[in-house]
Design brief:
The complex is a heterodimer of chains A (257) and B (393). Chain A folds into two domains: 169 residues, 3-Layer(aba) Sandwich (Rossmann fold), CATH 3.40.50.300; 79 residues, no CATH class. In chain A, strand 1 and strand 2 form a beta hairpin. Helix content of chain A is 37%, strand content 25%. Chain A is globular. Chain A contains nine helices and ten strands. The longest helix of chain A has 16 residues. In chain A, strands 6-7-8-3-9-10 form a six-stranded mixed sheet, sandwiched between helices. A four-stranded antiparallel sheet of chain A has the order 2-1-4-5, covered by helices on one side. In chain A, 45% of the residues are buried. Chain A is an alpha/beta fold. Chain B is mostly helical and 393 residues long. Chain B has a domain of 271 residues: ABC transporter involved in vitamin B12 uptake, BtuC (Orthogonal Bundle). Chain B is built from 20 helices and four strands. In chain B, a hairpin with a 2-residue loop joins strand 2 and strand 3. In chain B, helix 11 crosses helix 12 and helix 16 packs antiparallel against helix 19. Chain B starts with a helix and ends with a helix. Classes of the chains: A alpha/beta (257), B mainly alpha (393). At the A-B interface, helix 2 and helix 3 of A face helix 11, helix 12, helix 13 and helix 14 of B.
Chain lengths: 257, 393
């Protein structure tokens, strides 16, 4: 390990979000290091998903700013944020249920290659060999290659989640946001997903992961921030978090012995 | 292998999958042989076949918007009307040649679609439909009132002998014969069968363009919009311009159809922009099979055919048909059935539509596919038995 100062790819400063009188987030200060996996944990209603939605531009913060690689994200449209290299996996999978599995993975690749809008109506999807091969390769890694011609809506919930992950990964995002990527998966599928995410980790992709499952968190995270009642109550290495008395009291105490 | 796959831009333009090429060839053959196979059905006269081709183009274009993006426009007749008016004005001011007329029809209706689409697409679902309907009704009312100098209101816009026709005068091709000049293409007068074959060729081209769009990344993006807009946006697609592009393209198809209507019969009236016309194209698309390449064409043909057949039947023909029945019974049959024919043929159309939507939500195309599948399933066990027999040997 070298002693260089880590490169902060995403920086949230003093982010506050009020829903009416309810303070969902207050004075959030979050720094995500490039190439690391950063887990955000916390009890239900702590504001984890709200924080992710603020980062991705789905909801604007009441005050404060989110800066990605030197650019302020606040006020940008979701597609612009994606085009900057941020992809997101949702809590309930957002896929193209009417398209085939393969088309689901190819579409995001077109968005990455052709930008937010291009009327390329005289080329044929079938002839886009490069993109198709990349998509098929990814589906193969995720054990879904056999189902590539199936309509995505017919997949099981766990498969839909993995498909959505494929859709994000084919874009080779600089920052991948995962909102409970293993929720609703069987133990076996969860472990497969952990293995896959570990492999992505080796490729140096930065990830922010929101997760309930402590097994997943401690298998993957390089750093952990603990959110409770809209505030970050602790942040640090997994080992530090495990031993932090405030965290144990607020959250971990009931979950992990 | 790789060098074989790499292609120049031009050859890409004509690049279709094997299946699409076969479909296109069959389609072209079916369209061009219409005068033959429509003869036993009693519909092989040019005027009707022109309508078949033109309304198929209208429905194909409508399907690019509704079938791919799922946005239901209820005002597409406006573009049909604009196309017709533009074409007739081209006949009046420039030349009786239909090529510039059709070109202008496409361009002007495209501009209209750009403006109407820009505002309508700010909303989705039912609000989008209502907005398109409102715009179309505005066009319709304007054509009857304020814009009478351009549209000739209720009389309809007609080609007259005294029109300037700048290009024709310049080139000295102004018709010397008496009477109203007829539309022509590169010197050939467009009448009857010529008119039909022109429309048929344009229909085949329109079908090809629709195939290309369906198979392209652009078409895939439009399907993505229909399927899940949230995912589209978080995948980096800017969905607004995609939908506007689809709206303009389908508006241009409608304008093309309107231009052809004027080319085959050089008159344009506001009734072409009525909401019933907009509704008709919705019916055609749903009846045939929305979101498929061929469905809207089938829908357009079925509706235009039935319109022609049923509206031609009158009480006299019904009386003849049921002459074999006893007098009282004959009277009852004729009275009841006469409500469904002639002017009342829309009642038959309504019934047909209800039956299709309830029993075949995917349209006639899905119906025929289901039939084919059932047929195949019956055959398959036989094949398996055959294989077993072979294995046994």
């Amino acid at each position: 390990m070298n002693a260089q100062t880590p490169n902060i790819i995403l920086h949230a400063t003093d982010v506050t979000k009020n829903f009416g009188g309810l303070k969902a987030l207050s004075d959030i200060d979050l720094q995500i290091e490039e190439g690391k996996t950063h887990a955000i944990i916390g009890p239900n209603g702590a504001g984890k998903s709200t924080l992710l939605n603020v980062i991705i531009g789905r909801i604007p913060p009441s005050s404060g700013a989110v800066v990605f690689d030197g650019t302020i994200l606040t006020g940008k449209a979701p597609h612009e944020i994606n085009q900057m290299g941020i992809s997101r996996v949702f809590q309930t999978p957002e896929i193209f249920a009417d398209l085939t599995v393969l088309q689901n993975v190819m579409a995001p690749a077109f968005a990455r290659r052709d930008g937010p809008f291009k009327v390329n109506m005289f080329t044929s999807v079938a002839r886009e060999t490069e993109i198709r091969e990349a998509a098929e390769g990814l589906l193969n890694d995720f054990g879904m290659w056999e189902r590539r011609e199936d309509t995505a809506g017919t997949l099981s919930r766990g498969d839909k989640r993995r498909l959505e992950l494929c859709m994000c990964l084919i874009q080779r995002p600089r920052l991948l946001l995962l909102d409970e990527p293993t929720a609703g998966m069987s133990r076996h599928d969860t472990n497969t997903t952990i293995e896959l995410l570990k492999r992505i980790k080796l490729s140096g992709m930065t990830k922010v992961i929101i997760e309930h499952d402590m097994h997943v968190v401690f298998s993957l995270a390089d750093k952990i921030s603990v959110l409770a009642q809209g505030r970050i109550i602790a942040a640090g290495l997994p080992q530090e978090i495990k031993e932090n008395p405030r965290v144990r009291e607020a959250y971990l105490g009931e979950t992990v012995q | 292998m790789n060098t074989l796959i790499r292609q120049s831009g031009l050859s890409r333009l004509f690049d279709l999958s094997r299946r699409d090429v076969i479909t296109l060839l069959i389609f072209a053959a079916v369209v061009l042989t219409m005068p033959i196979w429509l003869a036993p059905l009693g519909a092989a006269y040019p005027g009707l076949m022109q309508k078949f081709a033109i309304y198929a183009i209208f429905a194909i274009g409508f399907n690019i918007l509704f079938g791919l993006t799922g946005y239901l426009s209820f005002g597409h007749a406006a573009f049909l009307g604009v196309g017709s008016y533009t074409a007739v004005w081209s006949f009046k001011l420039l030349t009786m040649d239909i090529l510039p007329a059709i070109l202008f029809a496409i361009v002007v209706s495209g501009v209209f679609a750009l403006v109407i689409g820009y505002f309508s697409l700010r909303r989705s679902g039912i609000y989008f439909s209502i907005l398109t309907l409102a715009f179309a009704q505005m066009c319709y009312s304007l054509a009857y009132s304020v814009l009478t100098p351009i549209t000739q209101g209720e009389t309809g816009l007609l080609v007259a002998r005294g029109d300037p026709r700048v290009l024709d005068t310049m080139l000295g091709v102004q018709a010397q014969t008496g009477g109203v000049p007829q539309p022509s293409m590169l010197g050939t007068t467009i009448t009857g069968y010529t008119g039909f074959y022109v429309c048929a060729v344009v229909l085949i081209l329109a079908f090809y363009v629709s195939q290309k769009i369906f198979a392209s990344p652009f078409g895939m993006a439009l399907r993505g919009i229909k399927s899940n807009q949230t995912r589209m946006v978080y995948t980096g697609f800017n969905t607004k311009p995609y939908m506007l592009a689809a709206f303009v393209i389908s508006g241009m198809f409608a304008g093309l159809a309107g231009g052809l209507l004027a080319a085959t019969d050089p008159i344009a009236g506001a009734e072409r922009m009525r909401w019933t016309e907009s509704g008709n194209v919705v019916l055609m698309t749903i009846l045939g099979g929305v979101g498929t390449v061929i469905g809207p064409v089938i829908g357009a043909w079925v509706i235009k055919y039935f319109e022609n057949i049923f509206s031609a039947i009158n009480t006299g023909t019904l009386n003849e048909w049921f002459a074999f029945l006893p007098d009282g019974l004959q009277g009852v049959f004729v009275t009841v059935l006469s409500k469904f024919v002639g002017e009342g043929w829309h009642l038959t159309l309504g019934l047909l539509f209800v039956l299709i939507v309830v029993f075949l939500p995917g349209g006639l195309l899905e119906g025929s596919q289901r039939l084919a599948a059932r047929f195949r399933r019956k055959k398959q066990p036989q094949r398996r038995e055959l294989r077993q027999m072979e294995a046994g040997e």
